[in-house]
Amino acid sequence: MSRKTVGMITGYSGLTQSDWLWQQTPHPFGVWGNIQMLANAPKPDFLLMYQFNFYEKLPRKKSWLTRLQKPKPDQVRLVDVHSKLRGVPQERTIYLLREPPLEEIVGKNKANYEEAKKYCSYISGPDDFAPTPNYMPAIWYHANSFRELSEMNPPQKEKALSWITSGVNRTANHRQRLDFLKQLQLSEIPFDLYGRKLPNWATTSGELSNKWYAMAPYYYNLAIENYAENSWYVSEKLWDSLLAWCLPIYYGGSAADQLLPPGSFLCLPSLDEKGISYIKEVTATPDAWHEAKSAIAEAREIILHKLNLLNWLSDFVDKFS
């Protein structure tokens, strides 16, 4: 059986790398099983539309008058999709939406699903109104090679707790997370905070170019999703934490319970004083991490070899052989 190429288009403006996902396989040039991931291939055999937005904002005219007026809702237009499909037929085109169904963007997500039906044979997202509700296959954001992640023993742990987050506050869920961050810092529980665009009141260790350095030396890592209200959504926050051999203190929906072995992560009960007390109790000693080490090892294997987006794509392509 000949190897098939998989191209990719996305709505993420910064995701333009030709080597996208190549770090998620032990083989050169994005090869995994029967596929080769070549995001920018001019004539791929299959095409992944990854968080692709079919609608784009119309540019606003910035006259002195419009600057004085109350902002109006963004006007949008359909993107010219045909020029982006590179000749891939509908039956070999996949649409995966990965962002959570936050109240503020549900309408946008539904519109994208409807438009995707014109071009894609498989359309999925981590919500109940997707044509095929499903977990988002795993991607991760460590720079380590696949072989290094797969073969490594636990790195030396030196500190108790870290949290990597951002100061994004555009939705109610984002603001809830920032409120919890403020409570956690006021509690004086020792932890190191990393991230971008954090508010001025946050005591932070700064931004990162590689998340590994803010996870690997820590026993515990706070993995707090932006959305915890359904049984489908789980993100790289959990995968990154486990791949760095942390024991995640996880706040999210029940999807993680379906995908990972018991004991491989701890469930944060709530984003309030009860949650603060739980973090304080767990992180007081490394005992929970030592007890979970074998479960963490099992979870890492599942993430690397089963949940891996490349493995998912390979299984999809297998159906055409």
TrEMBL record:
GO terms for molecular function: alpha-(1->3)-fucosyltransferase activity. This is Glycosyltransferase. Belongs to the glycosyltransferase 10 family. InterPro entries: Glyco_tran_10_C (IPR055270), Glyco_trans_10 (IPR001503), GT10-like_C_sf (IPR038577). The keyword Glycosyltransferase applies. It holds the Pfam family Glyco_transf_10. Keywords: Glycosyltransferase, Transferase. GO terms for cellular component: membrane. It comes from Symplocastrum torsivum CPER-KK1. Residues 155-268 form the Fucosyltransferase C-terminal domain. The keyword Ligase does not apply.
